Amino acid sequence: MINFGYTRVTTPKAAVEALVKNSNAQWLAGGTNLVDLMKKGVIVPQNLIDINNLPLKEIKKDNGKLHIGALALNSDVAENDLVRQQQPLLSLALQAGASQQIRNMATIGGNMMQRTRCSYFYNPDMPCNKREPGTGCGALKGFNRMHAIFGTSEKCIAVHPSDMCIALVALDATVLITGPKGERRISFQNFHRLPGDAPQRDNTLERGELITGIEIPDNAFKDHFHYLKIRDRTSYAFALVSVAAAVSLQGDTIQDVRLAMGGVAHKPWRLVEAENFLKGKSASEANFRQAAAVAMKGAQGFGHNNFKLKLAPNTLVEALKTATGKA
Ligand code: SF4
Q: What keywords are annotated for this sequence in UniProt (predicted)?
């Protein structure tokens, strides 16, 4: 690891000012991804600004919405009574991520900011447009078993790695931000971005903008939900495909439904067309299969990851069956 400066700040304003002042600085929260990236030489910041003492750890109900501070720990949020009662899908998705030890260190904001685990991105000797724009994409014609099937570009086919974010996009969360130009809010759907011509940008934050928290509106999904994560081993592995499913039922009729997939795109992949197909229909496997066919429109494999074209719709059907008690 290369030497770097270290500063500790105690207010969001000071955190923003310190970052804007240093052109090659990074904020340090739990460090569960950043420190790995520094050790491998993927990211080489000259200064780390430690934000762990900012007052952003609160979990509370605010105006009918669940508010979670950006520095709340993944394990604290997953085990929090309010979260379990109000947004149980979020708790389930958090528990599916990483290991208990990592969840004890990782923050909610850091979870949203973590980088793809594409092996070419992590190896500075390999071409990667995300790490070094213009060098090419090693995965496109290389070993791409973990890679995306939706929303790819010729510049990058990486996937977003978080489990928590798949639940948050399904739950219509909002990201709260402060920055050099003041405060703003971004819908979770618009927070992460597709690679397009600029795969080096994972999200829509501007330089110096700090996540202060998230808000999740109340919903009718407390009884019928599931987060199904398919991976190579049952713990401490990233998703090959995951599905967040939340359903509101009246009798056997689907009143409302939210669906999102992980492990398939550069951003948490919301399945709005499949949701619209299911609304007003009965909760049956036949309807779930048709919704899965709708969800898979436009999917494209790149060779090693072609199995996801079958795994993804099957995972969606199984998640819906479990969420609605049809498993
Ligand atoms: Fe880099 Fe994206 Fe290609 Fe992976 S998929 S090598 S992250 S450009």
A: FAD, Flavoprotein, Plasmid
